[in-house]
Design brief:
The complex is a heterodimer.
Chain A: E1 6-8, E2 11-13, E3 17-20, H1 27-37, E4 41-48, E5 69-72, H2 80-92, E6 98-101, H3 114-126, E7 130-135, H4 139-147, E8 154-155, H5 169-178, E9 184-186, H6 192-200, E10 205-208, H7 210-213, H8 218-238
Chain B: E1 2-5, E2 8-11, H1 17-23, E3 32-35, E4 38-40, E5 55-63
Classes of the chains: A alpha/beta, B mainly beta.
Chain lengths: 259, 65
């Protein structure tokens, strides 16, 4: 089989696992988990430095920049304007012009605000960013974001950090069917079976943080998730059988008849 | 001079943004600066003068998904 690459913007990726860098028990476990995941894209957040204690707590001190593509997010933003500001700050670091637009207006669900997300995507695409918006699993919104120039669209499976799995596989299937850019499931996944299901539905990649970082063994879980992604992808490419209402013998029913 | 850094008033002996960075021991670290609403690249720090009550944001990258 020829190499199955994922193209986003002007980059080609062999890994379909985007991994977040929050919540790990310590930098060593994080580094080992990232290694085990095989991920090439890492996400992180932009925050004010604590000036009372500036000894380096930046996530980047533990990572080798050239090995990864950095996908900073705009978490904490509640409006398009705030998200654009965070994106510009992130790009000024010189590390990446990729940005995950994440705009939540509700603290309880952290569900994305679709209107502000669309506005921010339009602005950032015009400014030359490679924009990957996090959005609800609404097929029409996903299409709108693609039309606005998003390099990939990232519908959530369920609210961030819940591990509830794919609440609406029907919608995800529709989104994939209709998409001309990669669809990446972001947020809400909990288990290997969730990620395999997502990949079987035909999404191009998954973005996860909590299910790996908060597992009892994050390194083992990172590897398991990687294998689940690969299995789901191969199954999708190979084509599953149709579901039928009644049995059909795999060795042929006629062969069993003794006259 | 008095500056407003990350939302807090600070009395600092600084002429440029680079001096502010140095004051907090942040030289060479992955830091991004916004001064009075304008985002500055690292190359601009030494040439950007600070003025009294300038609003400066110093941000970095932390874990997130």
């Amino acid at each position: 089989m020829k190499q199955d690459l994922l193209r986003i913007g002007n980059r080609e990726l062999s890994s379909r696992f985007f991994i977040g860098t929050g919540l790990f028990p310590n930098p060593y476990v994080q580094k080992e988990a990232i290694k085990a995941s095989g991920a090439q894209v890492l996400t992180f957040a932009v925050r004010r430095i604590n000036l009372e204690a500036t000894e380096d707590d930046s996530i980047l001190q533990h990572l080798q920049h050239e090995e990864y593509i950095y996908l900073p997010n705009t978490s904490g933003a509640r409006t398009a304007e705030e998200a654009v500001r965070i994106a510009r700050l992130a790009r000024a670091s010189g590390l990446s012009d990729w940005i995950k637009v994440e705009i939540s207006a509700n603290e309880r669900t952290l569900l994305p605000d679709p209107i502000e997300t669309l506005k921010a995507t339009e602005t950032l695409v015009k400014e030359g960013f490679t924009v990957l918006p996090y959005i609800t699993d609404d097929p029409i919104m996903c299409k709108r974001l693609e039309e606005a120039g998003a390099a990939a669209v990232m519908p959530g499976a369920a609210p961030i950090g819940t591990g509830l799995g794919i609440l609406n596989p029907y919608h995800l299937g529709l989104i994939v069917e209709d998409a001309n850019v990669p669809i990446i499931v972001d947020a809400g996944l909990g288990s290997v079976s969730d990620v395999t299901q997502a990949m079987e539905l035909g999404v191009s990649a998954v973005l996860m943080n909590t299910p790996v970082a908060k597992a009892r063994n994050p390194v083992g879980m990172a590897q398991a998730m990687r294998m689940g992604i690969e299995a789901g992808r191969l199954a999708y490419l190979s084509g599953r059988i149709e579901k039928k209402r009644y049995a059909s013998a795999s060795s042929g029913y006629e062969a069993f008849k003794l006259n | 001079m008095e500056l407003v850094i990350n939302g807090k008033k600070q009395e600092l002996d600084a002429e440029t943004i680079q001096d502010v960075i140095n004051h907090f021991g942040l030289a060479g670290k992955p830091v991004v600066v916004e001064a009075d609403g304008s985002v500055l690249t690292a190359a601009q720090w030494a040439d950007t003068s600070v003025r009294p009550h300038m609003q400066i944001e110093l941000v970095h990258f932390v874990g997130g998904g």
